[in-house]
Amino acid sequence: MDRRPTEEQTLRRALVAEKHAQATALLPAHGLDCWLTFSREGSDLLLPYVMGGEELVGTAALMLFADGPTVAIVADYDVGQVEDHFETVLPYSLDWQGPLREILNERKPARIGINFSEHDHGTDGLTHGLFLALIDALEPIGLAEALTTAEPVAAAVRATKTPAELERLRRAGEITQRIFEDITGMLKPGLTETEIAEIFRERMQTYEVGPAWEAAYCPSVFSSRSAGGHHAPGTTRIERGDGLRVDFGVRSEGYCSDLQRTWYLLRPGETAPPADFVRAFDTVHDGIRLAAETLRPGVTGQVVDAAARDPLAARGYTFTHALGHQLGRLAHDGGLLLGPDNARYGARSGGLVEAGMVFTLEPCVGPIGLEENVVVTETGCEFLVDPQEAVYLV
Amino acid sequence: MDRRPTEEQTLRRALVAEKHAQATALLPAHGLDCWLTFSREGSDLLLPYVMGGEELVGTAALMLFADGPTVAIVADYDVGQVEDHFETVLPYSLDWQGPLREILNERKPARIGINFSEHDHGTDGLTHGLFLALIDALEPIGLAEALTTAEPVAAAVRATKTPAELERLRRAGEITQRIFEDITGMLKPGLTETEIAEIFRERMQTYEVGPAWEAAYCPSVFSSRSAGGHHAPGTTRIERGDGLRVDFGVRSEGYCSDLQRTWYLLRPGETAPPADFVRAFDTVHDGIRLAAETLRPGVTGQVVDAAARDPLAARGYTFTHALGHQLGRLAHDGGLLLGPDNARYGARSGGLVEAGMVFTLEPCVGPIGLEENVVVTETGCEFLVDPQEAVYLV
Q1: Could you give the ipTM of this predicted complex?
Q2: Considering the entire predicted model, what is its pTM?
Q3: Distance CA A5, CA A83 (A)
């Protein structure tokens, strides 16, 4: 049997090695001796960072230590999924409790971080049932009390993109923009929202990418005649004089884009959209620009949100959702939000922006869907995809 | 805007209504006054049963009561996802805690079932962070103590298929078998495992279905030259004189198949596989038949497992995994297993089989992959797809 790694395996190994190094370096500063990802049936959103995929069928304990080799305890049939990524792999055929107790007795971590968080779904992958199973396993060796949240480490591992991750995010964005441009040439009056969504799906097949979120809502296609918000494309037809707003992203090599674009179907004789449509577009566009000028390491998510929200409000436009969320392996990647300080968003918008974070900027209002993706640099931010500068005309 | 429901919406409504009725009827027998699914960002495997999809972005509390109307508390932008399925929908724009306390104060459930389980991943969708958030919300109204596991109800809702679910499972199985038959006509010596997997992917596109589990391992394609177990297709070529074993399932209308089939590539002059290959095939095939003859309401998972395991052992064949798992919206649908009474499987194989459960039967050994899908009837079981009766020859 040919055992040479494929190109994909080599890339995945390198990416997981980058994320392991990042996590291990962070453990001491957060007072953790061990980061334990405890999972079964692919049940933790952090698995791709820890072992390059989600395909772990049996109950598994994946451990990074501040001071020694990494250890994976997995069911024997799952060995192939982790052997590329862990220094020690301990397969079990009957029970995982024994080997887990043995390793922890030997390494004696005083504080073990596990994956739960009240406010960040991206680092809250441990289910409550698995938490109880872990307590049962660790009580006999007096280590149940050592368990604490790994959130600060796990959130940084999700949020701070390595060069290999940024490349993938850029490629996902490029493909998405190419699909928008293809679509512009294919739109015509009389198409329903559902038919337009079908064209997006056919394009995803062509570019061999999947949707960034649940397929039924990716793309979300709204004629300006439809209500706003997250909804599945319907039977409304686009006609001359209508706006069209599409929220769409792809997942490519495990990483997501999440962009919105706006079209207008000119009526006979028109050379531009109506003035109020253009004014709304320009206002949202300016909001994104102002937010991007504010976004840099050290500011809070609330400051960036206000940089777009306040000028929009001054011009009579309101958006009730957050300005932006993080982007990574998930389209809504959790952790710090660019949002206001209120009951819904306050717990996630007060933290500080750091270099390497990737955000959406989406101060959308009414028929105007405009959402851009940016990466925070040492001094500011950069767009991952060229922003939309004017309404696309059909 | 056209507000008539699409055919898909109508089907989904009917299916969710069936599952709500099933769950509500079960609550009193299990001492529950309320079943609460508490989720965010689609983070609970039970969501499709409770609201027909997974597309809930905000934190949501979805409640079925033993004695009154159903209630969904969701973020305002998520209203469209639940309004078809709940009698009362309470949108919030800032915080979910207030409306949740209000409803629970009004309805006063003494015992509230939530989605956690130590042993069944299919009913363990509540994350530990969300569990803590729920405790925080309910403590001020003295209801934190009312929380208990909903596992018995949730497991029955997953396990006991309604007629609409069985139809979907049958269709998923039919498409899978059709793909196997297409493949038989396309196999030829010299193809690599990866190339064969590619043909399966192309067929899934043709039939407009997705893989039943992670795409990289669905299908799992093993030449008889490769090692067994879960692994991604590799660069090994199939040649005349080789066996080929494929583990493959599709997800169609939300429901999964999970089947295995076995091929043999005849050498020049051969009209049948070698005797030991045929003997192994027949032994696995007989094991499935004996298990199917044993499978009926009221027997334990361990009895069914032994019905295949013991005769295989008597003929010198051993499989270390469980005989079968449940099948539904997940390829590994959790709950009762057909497995031995050991440390790995004992906690999930001791329960009783009930009518309406759907299982795989897969006593596979070495190069022989044979896995069938059956539904338990009132008196026995029925195959969802005609079983493979002889090695497919190429």
Answers
A1: 0.85
A2: 0.86
A3: 12
